[in-house]
Amino acid sequence: MGAEGSSNQKHRTASSCDDKMTARVKNNYDPLRFHQIHGDNVKLLKSASAACRYEGFCKGIAFSNRPVMVGELVCIKFLEISTNWSGALRIGFTANDPMSMKSKLPRYACPDLTNMPGYWAKAIAERMAKKDSILYYYVDQNGDVHYGIDLDEHGVFFGGVNTSCRLWAVLDIYGNTVAVEFVDPNSLNPEGINDSSRNNENVSLINEAGQQSSPLKDEINQVLSFHSIHGRNVSLRTHGTTALRKHDCNIHAYVFTQCPLRLLERVFIKIGRINPKCYGNLFYGITSCDPQTLNHHVLPENTDDLLDRPEYWIVRTDANVYEVGDVIAYSINNDGEVTVMRNGEYNTAIFHVDPTQPLWLFFNMIGPISEINLLGSYFNDNYNRLESMKVALPPKSEKSGGVPGASGQQTLNECVICFGEQIDCAIYRCGHMCMCYSCASKLKINAREKCPICREIIEDVIRIYR
């Protein structure tokens, strides 16, 4: 376009990881509100800055009251979340003036609107819809829609938006999302987000001679390396023990361990390099997919899309702020409980996996962390045999009210969905017992939902009485 000066700065996009979040947040536009045209089940509140779906789970389509600019943040706060429905908010853009849709709005944005010309939208992951969290998204000049939660960028969500015309924001207040509110980006404070210059103490990682050392080095007794199959924006060095994300890239940075993890094996990762100009979080997880069967062409840009693959995938976001030299340890016990230890300071249950199948540890280096080093692992075979003979104690009887206990750990008999109720059912046909009857029944209603353990289709739920 050739524009220069302040006009160019106002409309510049964030397609490069070198762009600061502050450049995208501050603008001189009028705060967004909801358009008078909306779905039949939508009510506008707070002078049209908030929208609520007052019945059912659909007919919740809403639009912004004015066109949004390329690169302008659309910020949405989740005001109310329901546990009665499956699915979550749909977000996107339209090139059609909402006034043209008066009395014509369908039940759903996806696929009803997206099958029509000039509409682009996609559903966010259900786990991202949390009360009081702030979702933001924007479109860049290339037509790619970026998104994130609470100023942690998750990367490109989808693409193909026509940016040569005016665009209105599209929201479908669907499923578990009941009420949302537009938030003025100027009120957000991104200063210090993922700032590697923070003066946090680096626990015991610098010795008296000023050299890098690890307080865990004496525990490492197994040599490990990353798998030769990795994302297209990663290069491996030091005999496959160092994974480095390519310069000016913040996507497709997948790496896998060379071999499956053994139960009670503790794998150590060290943060090797940080780029404070990149926003987002490190993704990590567990998979039953042998990396040898993959190539970088099938690895998605959005890490959450791995969950759509037929293999068993568990994806987690690590929102911690790390320093160069920090050491993170990952392990799986005989009950499938995954634990993480940072600099030898804490040991917290994160989630549960199916320990009956081979499981690889994987990472997607999104955000500031641009290099990780696989130090090795510690494995005590004698301890492994002793641990396998232990008898688990029964869990405490008190309810946690949906919170995984005072210690942050989930007990063996707690539902992996709500973490509050006891497991009292089995899934047919896989037979896994991992949920309470209420949560399992809700998943069964949605034909797309699968067993959290093995990803098999839920055909039926059988209540169990102990």
Topology:
Elements: H1 6-11, H2 21-25, E1 34-38, E2 42-45, E3 50-53, E4 61-64, E5 74-81, E6 90-94, H3 109-113, E7 119-123, E8 134-139, E9 145-149, E10 152-158, E11 168-172, E12 177-183, E13 234-237, E14 242-245, E15 254-256, E16 266-274, E17 282-287, E18 313-318, E19 327-332, E20 337-342, E21 348-352, E22 360-364, E23 369-378, H4 381-388, E24 425-428, H5 437-445, E25 460-463
Antiparallel strand pairs: 1-4, 2-3, 3-12, 4-11, 5-8, 5-12, 6-7, 6-11, 8-9, 9-10, 13-14, 14-23, 15-22, 16-19, 16-23, 17-18, 17-22, 19-20, 20-21, 24-25
Order of helices and strands: HHEEEEEEHEEEEEEEEEEEEEEEEEHEHE
**First and last CA, distance:** 70 Å
Mean pLDDT: 79
For the largest beta-sheet, the strand count, sense and barrel status come to: 7 strands, antiparallel
SS-based structural class? mainly beta
Unreliable segments (pLDDT under 50, ≥5 consecutive)? 1-23, 190-218, 385-410
Which shape, going by the Cα principal axes?
globular
Number of strands: 25
Strand order of the largest sheet: 2-3-12-5-8-9-10
**Residue fraction in strands:** 25-35%
Query: Taking Cα atoms only, what radius of gyration do you get, to the nearest Å?
Result: 24 Å
Total helices: the number is 5
Bin the helical content.
under 10%
Domain RING-type: 415-455
Protein name: Protein neuralized
Domain NHR: 31-185, 223-377
Keywords: Metal-binding, Repeat, Zinc, Zinc-finger
Give structural notes.
By secondary structure, this protein is mainly beta. The chain is 7% helix and 29% strand. The protein has 5 helices and 25 strands. The chain has helices at 6-11, 21-25, 109-113, 381-388, 437-445, and strands spanning 34-38, 42-45, 50-53, 61-64, 74-81, 90-94, 119-123, 134-139, 145-149, 152-158, 168-172, 177-183, 234-237, 242-245, 254-256, 266-274, 282-287, 313-318, 327-332, 337-342, 348-352, 360-364, 369-378, 425-428, 460-463. The strands form 5 sheets. It has a 7-stranded antiparallel β-sheet with strand order 2-3-12-5-8-9-10, with no helix packed on it. A 7-stranded antiparallel β-sheet has the order 13-14-23-16-19-20-21, with no helix packed on it. A 5-stranded antiparallel β-sheet has the order 1-4-11-6-7. The longest helix is centred in the C-terminal third of the chain and has 9 residues, at 437-445.
